[in-house]
Amino acid sequence: MSSALRVAVIGAGYWGPNLARNFHNSADWELAAICDLDAGRAEALARRFTGTAAVSELSAVLEDPDIDAVAIATPARTHHAIATAALTAGKHVLVEKPLADSGLHGRSMAEMAERCGLVLMADHTYCYTPAVMKIRELIEAGELGDILFIDSVRINLGLIQPDVDVLWDLAPHDLSIIDFILPGGLRPLSVSAQGADPLGAGKACIGYLTLPLANGAVAHVHVNWLSPTKIRTMIIGGSKRTLVWDDLNPQQRVSVYDRGVDLQTQRVGGVDRRAAMVSYRLGDTWSPALVEREPLDAMAAEFAASIREGRAPRTDAGSGLRVLEVLEAASRSLAEAAAPPRGPEDPAARALVGELA
Amino acid sequence: MSSALRVAVIGAGYWGPNLARNFHNSADWELAAICDLDAGRAEALARRFTGTAAVSELSAVLEDPDIDAVAIATPARTHHAIATAALTAGKHVLVEKPLADSGLHGRSMAEMAERCGLVLMADHTYCYTPAVMKIRELIEAGELGDILFIDSVRINLGLIQPDVDVLWDLAPHDLSIIDFILPGGLRPLSVSAQGADPLGAGKACIGYLTLPLANGAVAHVHVNWLSPTKIRTMIIGGSKRTLVWDDLNPQQRVSVYDRGVDLQTQRVGGVDRRAAMVSYRLGDTWSPALVEREPLDAMAAEFAASIREGRAPRTDAGSGLRVLEVLEAASRSLAEAAAPPRGPEDPAARALVGELA
Amino acid sequence: MSSALRVAVIGAGYWGPNLARNFHNSADWELAAICDLDAGRAEALARRFTGTAAVSELSAVLEDPDIDAVAIATPARTHHAIATAALTAGKHVLVEKPLADSGLHGRSMAEMAERCGLVLMADHTYCYTPAVMKIRELIEAGELGDILFIDSVRINLGLIQPDVDVLWDLAPHDLSIIDFILPGGLRPLSVSAQGADPLGAGKACIGYLTLPLANGAVAHVHVNWLSPTKIRTMIIGGSKRTLVWDDLNPQQRVSVYDRGVDLQTQRVGGVDRRAAMVSYRLGDTWSPALVEREPLDAMAAEFAASIREGRAPRTDAGSGLRVLEVLEAASRSLAEAAAPPRGPEDPAARALVGELA
Amino acid sequence: MSSALRVAVIGAGYWGPNLARNFHNSADWELAAICDLDAGRAEALARRFTGTAAVSELSAVLEDPDIDAVAIATPARTHHAIATAALTAGKHVLVEKPLADSGLHGRSMAEMAERCGLVLMADHTYCYTPAVMKIRELIEAGELGDILFIDSVRINLGLIQPDVDVLWDLAPHDLSIIDFILPGGLRPLSVSAQGADPLGAGKACIGYLTLPLANGAVAHVHVNWLSPTKIRTMIIGGSKRTLVWDDLNPQQRVSVYDRGVDLQTQRVGGVDRRAAMVSYRLGDTWSPALVEREPLDAMAAEFAASIREGRAPRTDAGSGLRVLEVLEAASRSLAEAAAPPRGPEDPAARALVGELA
């Protein structure tokens, strides 16, 4: 292997230490520096590794010609400025989810990376878990047939975030996973969002997203900060088989059910009739063994490979943008629903669906 | 006890036998007759009991002065005509869910019962399960505090019905339960429905309902005929405690979690701020013992009691109407969303998956 | 098919009605009579079927030349006398588990059936469940490799039986299943039993059975009347794969794990060493679809087939005897362990917990 | 608080780093040194902390007058020599489980600690988990009533250890927990062990322990290295309530069932009869909230407190000895069962309990 690439982690808060540890342990990477405005925090993190500098000025990282890439783990509202500066300085960039705080900012980052010929990668960590990689592989191989529906639930007693609602906090996980496993990425025909704020927290603490897909399929996401039980389940219904991913069942995370409904078309009096001829398959269930690997380790490897091979990473800026656009459409849908006065016949409901631009 | 009331069961198909058996076993009732247009079917069912007549003409039942009540277990489109005839003949009426095939029909039935001073009861069977009766009791006693959200999931590989979509087939269960347990009944501010028909069955096989409630609360229902795994779960989040009902876990159907999020209002610079002051309760979980009783037996007893006491039954015509109105609003919501011509993606839809030529 | 065989069910208590219903529904059988000393009970059961006589005298059944077989569902202590009379009268015999109340009685019944050329079948109902039939089929096909261990747990809050301990009440299920699935039947090298009677009920309410098998394998059974949670699980470890049967998980009763430990023998300094070379397989899990069929229906079919084909049934007298012999050995093992006078701790035992004076 | 105590961790292999990290993080302790014969390993571990020395000679630790205590995390066969030297040098001693490789060694260590007036503590880590501390507290408060039975299962695909069998490897966990929660500690009336080595690994890979307790109660332990599914469950049946601890269910580890069997004594003809009068309680289930705390942190605190207060720690040498004695008795029980040479017909089996006819 060629010599290791050198990376700086920007932001030593909640997520930065995880990135730092995985870059440090990766044969592909050398962890050159930790950068945080809070010098003490940068130092405390850098001290855990040998040969890693602590800096409190972003410019110190960007001006260092030996640094190949930066990994940004700062609040979303700062992503655009930092990534732009880094790309301008010729660094490859990895950005924690969501890619940016708006589609506008995200698109500007993606265009700049394109123009500079640099890698801009979204840190959609879940996509590098063994379960999600296996799901993508199965769908790609046609094991499920055509995707008919995806139902994702991610609920738990959760920290009410000061700056974002539950959709922006949790749904990026579901959306980035759906984008990753669907052959053409996540391209909903429209976005309809429902939210509730029963505690008066000033933002939705419960959120539902409905995303009609091509060919009559649908994806639905339920995220919730107020549930006393933790559920993280995704059901992916296909025309051939259906897959259930239960992320909280370490003994059987992924199950593939060879069950389903078959419709046969029948011409009756010159008209196609389908529903009349339903048959059910009740076949075996199968649960693939998953190779244990820390997802951030796989992501670090993919970041390095995409840089070396001059290609887009698996979770590229495009995937980050598609997630962002759904989130923005969801916010518009929520705002429209809330806008008109709620009359008894609720005309608001009619304006509801948040059509994607 | 006064002497038993006499009932005739109309319809000897899928549900009629269950009603017949429970009326037969009830001390409150004498099962006088089984009525079905198919005389053979009526006879086969009546033969299981002693002293029960089999008739194939509704008039034979309605003209019998010794019959106090009829229980209607025929297709929904026939409910209005049969119930109207029965009420006109002075019989009390129990109707299988849904109350009628339209709100118009339902309201006409309710008004006639009112006018005649007769009991019109909706057979919302789930409301008479020990679990739902306990949930109602706990909410009534204030154990959960104010209801913040209800999330109901009822999915399984299911028979695609010839005449109704998945919302009309399955959601009456969820809606009648929610109507039963909410102190003022189910009175959503609006109804938003999403459906999907990825198999091209001609009707929604997957359905989502979002029902904003007063005070920022929300109820959401997910029904699905295409899921390989069976889930029947309702989460009821309250300001004091949260309840989870898992109907498929006979060892612990109902769990009450003394967990949740508390927000404190704080005045900062003349402005109320809440989210900043969040605290979490992580208390005990408690699962009440449930007395085993067949729900239809409890329902038969309630039907008799309401007749004898001249009062509305627990699941009265009003509850049937509220369920019907949500279903109708859901159908309107689906129709509106589907209204615009789909354009270029339609032909694609025809090439669908699952097509078994 | 040749004309149906005619059977009489002896005993109309707890189990008899289940046998009667299944014989009645079987195309192989005609349910000729119900026999019970309590004439009213016999009549009540016979009335549910058309063409079934009710009799209170066993001789009426045995002297009827048109009756081919009897199914005995009376208390175990009566099995020997009734079966002997029936065989003498030339009837084929099915006996509810356990085959008899002692090995001596069981052997005498088996010998008489042999001598008379009649079928004597043990009603080991569990062996005819789809799960157990699939397990037997998988083991027979070599899917699990050699059987290394079987661990069976059958615990629940249970009725304390007046006449038998928990081993005689519940373990016949486990033992008959193990006998059915092991290629050569259940032939333990020894039987070691442990029991406990912590409530002072006068018999073991908790029981453990350890059954060393050939080649170092072992079977272990845990039965318990005092457990607040219901568990019915059997783990069958094989040299190639391991199977887990969870009878209370209708969605996935049988799971086959392609996981295990492989030992390689290595010659080190002229000595075989094995443990040093361990490797682990962590392969897929697979859960076969099971065809739904009521086990008693399959059993009735097997009883008819064995009579018609003049062959031993799948659960023949030999299997009933092997189960009986393990139960008898278990009772001896319990008695030996309890033999020495308990001395000073006995008075303590009387002061026990649970004593409600 | 008085100034921190100073501790050296002996052994930097598998368990030492966990001890080191917890002592380092504890306000009660200063992590003075890491000692390992392998100097490189000692250094690698010491480097993770500030102010912690790395030494490769035990004497360097024992001769340091500023060191108050040592924590021994070396193989069991070395515990006696190291602990004896440490006690002689006036150090308090914590020993990883099991306390020693024999009861003889364990007793000698306990006597020396007693003589020297020093603390000798067994590192029974599980006893310091929130679940086990809660169980002990509930039993102590009489919530379960008298203990009737304990059934412990600890099975998983496990590393076949080179030097010990599965009983010595895994059962110390179960035994130390049982010792901790039973009011008078674990004092079985006898010890019966069954083992199996179906792979020919040269030692038991599957083990069962039956421990009759006073008053007819019983404890049973199942440990297994060959199970494809991981189970860690303990059922503790009491005369008032029964507790189930499922260590793999983080959402509900401890459940208390208010269910059970009540026997009433009835005098019939001058004789006490009990079983005839059985009644069942089917009350609520309750699951206490457990405070999250790393068990080794609680253990480090208890070690410090016992030293400062000059008292025995909760898991003192006596508890370590009781566990050792059961393990030794179990090995004797296994050896007796296996004693005679295993011929083809296995005469050994005949010496066993429960001889088959």
UniProtKB/TrEMBL annotation, chains A, B, C, D:
Name of protein: Predicted dehydrogenase
A Pfam family matched in the record: GFO_IDH_MocA
GFO/IDH/MocA-like oxidoreductase domain mapped to chain residues: 133-243
Source organism of the structure: Microterricola viridarii
Renumbered residue ranges of the record's region Disordered: 334-357
Matches recorded under InterPro entries: Gfo/Idh/MocA-like_OxRdtase_N, Gfo/Idh/MocA_Oxidoreductases, GFO_IDH_MocA-like_dom, NAD(P)-bd_dom_sf
Gene3D superfamilies, per the entry: Dihydrodipicolinate Reductase, domain 2, NAD(P)-binding Rossmann-like Domain
Domain Gfo/Idh/MocA-like oxidoreductase N-terminal as annotated: residue spans: 5-124
